[in-house]
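Sanity check

After download, print the first record. It should look like this:
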Amino acid sequence: FAAVLAAMPRSCAYCVIRDDGSITTAPDQEQSAAAKKDELVVFTGSFNPLHEGHVALLRAVEKLRGVPPLVELALVNADKPEVGAEIALARAAQFAGVWRVALSRRPLFVQKARAYARVARRVVFVVGFDTAARVLDAKYYGNSAESACAALAELRSHGALFLVAGRACDGRYRSLATERASLPPYFADYEDLFQDIPQETFRVDVCFLTLHN
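Expected structure tokens:
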């Protein structure tokens, strides 16, 4: 496994660990345009560790979209140190035999969307509210609102959609609907990229639940 990661060229956006444990490198470069999926559902995070909130969300989204999500383990994160091979293997093993796992070196969602657009006409990212807020935050685009808008426009061009799981803690439920006033003004121009997951579909009232992990 470590050898596979070491051999992955930096130009490779991601590799996929299948249910049977085999590994496909650079799947985005193997897909023909005619063989593209209509939709790819991706739940990305560091999963340190996988907990009941993640599992409940995976199952809820599978029912909602009708397909099992691809779990993306982010080896490179905009806010965290790079994940090494040994740690990546341990975290990926948490999903063994249940969900496919992609190992990705693309920290920004616009970079992920570029890669997944090669295998699917529409990519649906499953995120928690905190992560959705970061996708909109100009901090991750050189503190430039213009650059943030350009990234959001590119996400739209790739057919991206963010399914956003609300977060309940200390008696307060946070979602796009409840926290709209705290989001950047340009959210109004890209609201079509984001959709709250209904509370009746998924809600876990546990304070330790950090859905972007």
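If your output differs, re-run the checksum step. Summary of this record's structure: Residues 15 and 25 are 4 Å apart (CA to CA).
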